[in-house]
Amino acid sequence: MAEGGDNKNAGAEWPSDEVHRVNDDFNRFLHITQADADLLKCHQSLLLRDGEQFAKAFYDYLFRFPATAQVLEHYQAQGGKIKDLVSKQISHLQSFLSGRYDPESATELARIGRIHHLHGIKPVWFMGAYRLYLDYLHDVIAASTTLPSEERERLEDAIQKFLFRDMGMMLEGYWEAALSEIQSEKNKVAQLQDQITGMLGNIPQILWSVDVKNNTPLYISPSTRNICSLDVEMPIPCLAWTHPDDRELVKAAWREALQGNRVDVESRVQEPGQEPRWFSRVFHPFTDETGTVVRIDGLMDDTTKWKEVISKLHLLATTDSLTGLPNRALLYDRLSQAIAAARREGNKQVALLLMDLDHFKEINDTLGHPAGDEVLRQVAVRLAPLLRDSDTLARLGGDEFAVILPDVIKGLEAAHMVADTITDAFSRPFLYEGRDLYLGVGIGIALYPEHGEDVDTLMSRADLAMYGSKHKGIGSMVYQHNINDSSEHRLQLASELRRALERNEFILHYQPKIDLKSGRAYGVEALIRWQHPALGLVLPDQFIPFAERSGLIHPITDWLIETLAIQCRRWEEDGSKLSVALNVSASSFQNPKLLQRLHDTLSSGPLLGRARRLEIEITENTLMADIEHGSHVLRQLRELGVNVAIDDFGTGYCSLSYLKRLPIQSIKIDKTFVINMAQDASDAAIVRSTIELAHNLGYEVIAEGVENGDTLALLTDMGCDNAQGYFMGYPMPVEQIPRWLAESPWSPSRH
To answer: Can you name the CATH fold of 321-484?
Structure first.
C-alpha cells in the first residue's frame, strides 16, 4: 500500500543495520530466492496490464468505508489530490512486482509504514489493501491463457512471498514508529519528573502526602531532611523536634484534618542545641466518594524571618522612634489594660497624666529641629527614672508626653506626687551644644473611675485639665466637671462647628498620588479643611475630635461623599479620570448609615457607574477596634465596588493573620517610616519588608510622606506601587488641580 504523503525522512530514525537484519529475517523465513525475483520481473508487464484501473478501483473501495473515507477527505482538504495517490499506488505496485528484495527496498517499505503511522492509517486498513492486491493479481494470472499451469503456481507462490515481505516490512516500520513515539513521550515524562524533582529539591518548604488508611507516605520532598534532620516521621514530619509546648497543638490540628477540615497552625521546631524556629503547617485533606479522608497533603514553611519582621514592625508601631518610649498606640493599649485590671480589682484606681512642654516651639524656631529632637530625648531620659517599673511613660507626638499610674489605691495622691516630681525635674536646665535651655511643663490629671471609665474619656478629660493648667499658668491640674467652661477656645470651636456646614465653611484640598511604574498621577487624596471666618484655615486635628464627640462627624462625612462624587464627575467631564481617596473616621466607620449613603451615591448619584473611582481609607486602629464589624463593613464596601486601603499601616495593631483575610486592595505605609528611610537603614528595611509582605498577600502598596527624590528612587527600586508626598505635590485647593495636571512632570499628559 502506498504512503498517503511525502516525508522522505520518515524512516531515518530506524537504524539501517536493524532494517537490514529484519529484511534478512523476512527473506530467510519466507524462503525468497533470486528465482522468485526473476519470475516476478519476467511477468511484471503482464501483472501490470490493468494496474491503473486497479489503482483507481482501490481508492473507490476505500471511499466506501467511513473511517478510511474520512482520512482521504482530510487529505483532500489539505490540498492533496486523489490522482496523486493513484500514481503512487501504481508506482508501489510496480516496485512490488519488480522483484527487489534488497535492504534498500526494505528501508523504503519501513519508511512507508512509518508514514502510515504518522497519518493515522491503521494496520488493518493496509492489510485489507494487500488482500485487494492479492485478489487483483490472482485474477490477472487466472485470466492469462499463455501461462502454463506449473508457471502459474510458481508465480502465485512468488507473489505471496513478496506480498508477505512487503506487508511485514511496512508493519515493522509502523510499529517501530509507534514505539519511538511512546519512548519519546516516556522521555518527556521522565524529563518533566526530573525537572519537578529538581524544583522541589530546591525549595526550602517541606511538602509531603500521606496515605491516611495505611499511614504511609505517598510523596516526601527532598528538603524534608534538610529541615528536620531526622528520619521522616509519618504522618507529621518533624513532630519529634516540635517544641514540647506546641506538640499538642500540632496533634490537634492533625486530628481536625482527619475530620475533613483544612487546618493552618503555627508552631516552633527546635533542633538539639539550636534556637527554636517558627514554622507554619498546612494540612489539606482529600476525601473519597463516601466522604472518608483518604489522603492528607502537607506543607511546612519556615516563618522565623517573617516573625522577626513582624516583631520589628510591632516594635516600631508601638515605639516612638525619637525617644524610644511607647507611642500613642501603645499608651492606649496599656491604659485599656490598666482600666480592665482596676475594674476587676474593684478597689483600685488608674491615674493618667498628660504633659505639654512650655517654650518648646521657641527652641525649634531658634535653634532648629535637631535641637528640639535632642531636648525631647533628654526629657525622656530625665523622666523615666522617676516612675515605677509598672508605670508607663509615653510620647504622644510633638512635645506631648503621658504617664499611666496603674494599680493605685489613692490615685489622686499618687498623681499629685508624680506631677510634683516631674515639675521639679523641669527646674533644671537641659543642655544643647553648651547652652542651658529651660523648659516648663503643663500637666493634666484624670482618674479612673472618677473622671471616666474608658480610654477616650480619660484622655479627653486629662487633655482638658492640661489645657487648663497651661491657661492658668500652674504646674498641674486635676480634671473638674466645670473645666470645659474654662476652655473658651475649644468651646468656641465646638459651638461654631455646628454652623460650619450650614455656612458652607468646609473645603477640600487634594494631594496627588503617583503610580511609580508609569510615573503618572492616577488619583488624589481628599483632605478636609475648615475655612473659619475669624481663625482662618483650621486643620482637621483641631475640629474632628469635637465632631466625633458631638455626632457632627456623620453629616460632615455625608458632605464629603457628596462633594467628592460631584468633583469626580466634573473631572471626568474635563477628561481627567482621577480616582479619589477618602479618609473615614472611626465614628463614621461604625455608623451603619455609611454603607447606605455610599450605596445611594453609587446607585443613583453623581458616582453612578464610577465606584472604582472611589477609595475608602481606614486606619488600623479603627479596623481593629471591632474586627468582626470591620470585616462586615469591608465586605459590603467591596460588594459596592469601592476600593479599600488600610491607612497609616505600621502604627497600629493590625495583625497579618486578620489582614490577609480582609477584602482590601492596598495598604499605606505610614510616613513615619518613609520620611527618613533614605538615611535610616532600619526604616528602609521595615519599608522593604512591608512591601514584600503586602505583595505576597496580593495587595498594592502606597507610601506616604515622600519628601525628596532619594526616597522616591528607593521606593521605586523596592517595587513600591504608588507614592504621595510633598516632593510630588502638596495638598492643594481644587482650582489648582488643572494647573498642576498641566505643568507637573507627573501629569498623565506628559507620558
So the answer is: Alpha-Beta Plaits (3.30.70)
Banded pLDDT at 92 (limits 50, 70, 90): confident
Please tell me the class of the 16-186 domain. mainly alpha
Q: Using alpha carbons, list the distances in angstroms from residue 48 to 54, 55, 98.
A: 9, 11, 11
Cell numbers for 22, please give them: 529484519
- pTM of the shown model: 0.42
Check residue 626 and give its pLDDT: 67
Locus of grid cell 522483484:
99
Q: What is the DSSP letter of 231?
A: P
CATH number of 206-302: 3.30.450.20
Q: What is the pLDDT of residue 385?
A: 94
Looking at residue 365, its amino acid is: D
| DSSP 8-state class, residue 286 | E
Q: According to DSSP H, which parts of 346-410 are helical?
A: 360-367, 369-383
The pLDDT confidence band at residue 565, using thresholds 50, 70 and 90, is confident
Instruction: Specify whether the CB–CB gap between 306 and 280 falls below 8 A.
Output: no
Q: What span, in angstroms and rounded, lies between the C-alpha atoms of 52 and 710?
A: 86
Question: Class of the 492-750 domain?
Answer: alpha beta
Read off the pLDDT band of 208 (50, 70, 90). confident
Q: Is the pLDDT of residue 11 over 50?
A: no
The Cα 747–Cα 530 span in angstroms is 28
Question: Grid coordinates standing for 370?
Answer: 535637631
Looking only at the bridges linking them, the beta strands covering 536-538 and 579-583 are unpaired
Q: What CA–CA distance (Å, rounded) separates 436 from 48?
A: 125
Q: Distance between CA 280 and CA 310 in Å, rounded?
A: 15
Tell me what percent of the residues of the chain surpass a pLDDT of 70: 91
**AA identity, residue 103:** P
Domain residue ranges in the chain: 16-186, 206-302, 321-484, 492-750
Residues 6+ apart with CB under 8 A from 562: 601, 605, 606
